[in-house]
Stage 0 sporulation protein A homolog (Acetobacterium woodii), 224 residues
Amino acid sequence: MYKILIVEDDQVIANALKRHFEKWELEARTIEDFQHILEVFVDYEPQLVLLDISLPFFNGYHWCNEIRKISKVPIVFISSSSDNMNIVMAMNMGGDDFIAKPFDLSVMVAKIQALLRRTYSFQGQVNHLEHRGAILNLNDASMIYQDQKVELSKNEFKMLQILLENKGKVVSRDVIMKRLWDSDFFVDDNTLTVNIARLRKKLDEMGLNEFIVTKKGIGYLIGD
């Protein structure tokens, strides 16, 4: 079942869309917290986003840009501001379609179903890991947090990927070392300590304090 994220602050419209999508066996979720839309997007992992332009705090163009940093998921703008300038702006910001309000619900569903079919005949799923609002992009080995994007080294990326894939569990030093240096050559145990320290410093500078927790004599885990 395809999942649709509805980013619309008019709850009457949002709920009407949600109910209509569900009639057509499309799962849908509406937004309640308009300050943390990206975190909801990462948590829900929708196959399509319906995005209004006029929203509380930040407009739809802002959120389209934020989503495009981590995903190629189809984004359909829905707005009563349907003049040519807004339509062109929406497409240039990374939108895939623009549907003007007021719209017919049946036409909306038909357009959404067609876009989903075209997109997911070949395309895979969203490719990222998230924790505490920080997003590890598996496509380009970068970390995004509060409008900051930091490039990670090969080892930094691998360490974060291992830990985030095992969120809530302690990952032993041996397991991490084997993933980082999978060879027959001897690797000094202190090398991992140095790599972890460098990664922690980079995370601290982003404001992600105690993101990686040490379990003495065992290994590491992602902090709550």
The CA atoms of residues 20 and 176 lie 47 Å apart. The radius of gyration is 21 Å. Helices lie at 11-23, 37-44, 60-68, 84-92, 105-120, 154-165, 173-180, 189-206.
